[in-house]
Amino acid sequence: MPDQYLVAVFRDPDSLLRAVRGLRARSWSIYDVYAPYPVHNLDEAIGIRRSRLPFVTLVAGVLAMSFAFCFQFYAAVLDWPLNVGGKPDNSSLAFVPITFELTVLISGLATFAALFFRARLFPGKKEWLPVDGITNDRFALVLRRRAGNFDPGVASRLLESSGAEDVWEVEGKL
Known about the structure:
Elements: E1 4-10, H1 13-25, E2 32-34, H2 42-46, H3 53-79, H4 96-118, E3 139-145, H5 152-161, E4 166-171
Antiparallel strand pairs: 1-3, 1-4, 2-3
C-alpha cells in the first residue's frame, strides 16, 4: 500500500506557524515543511532534534588523527628509521602538521558523506515538491497519514482554520 500524505499550502509564515503549533498540540508529527526562506522558530515548533553530525565529525577526526600519528610513527621509527642530524626517530613534533591536516581533511569528508547519506542526496535522485511555487512565495506543510489517532478530516479543518489556502491528499513515495 503506498504512503498517503496530507499537503497544505500557506501564503505567509505566521499562518504556517499557527498550523504547526496546532498540529503539535494534538501530538501529531509533521512529516516535512517547505518554505522559500528560513522561518524563525519553525524548527522548535516542529520539534526537530539537534543534529548528530558533530558526533560523526568527532569520531572521524579522532580516527584520522590516530591513523595519521600511528602511520607516521611506524614509517619513521619502525619501518624506515633515518638518522637526520642526530635527531631522535620518534620526534613527535614533526608529526603534528600532517596529523592536523589529515584530521581536518578526513573529518570534513566524513561529515560531507554523512550529510549526503542521511539526507538521501545521491546523484540521479528525482526531486519532489508538493506544490508549484514553493521556492518563490508559498509555504507547504506535509503530514503523513498513518493509522491511529490521525483523522484526515479533523486535520484538514485544523489546517484550514489556521489559514491554509488549499489542503489535499497525495499518494506515493516522498
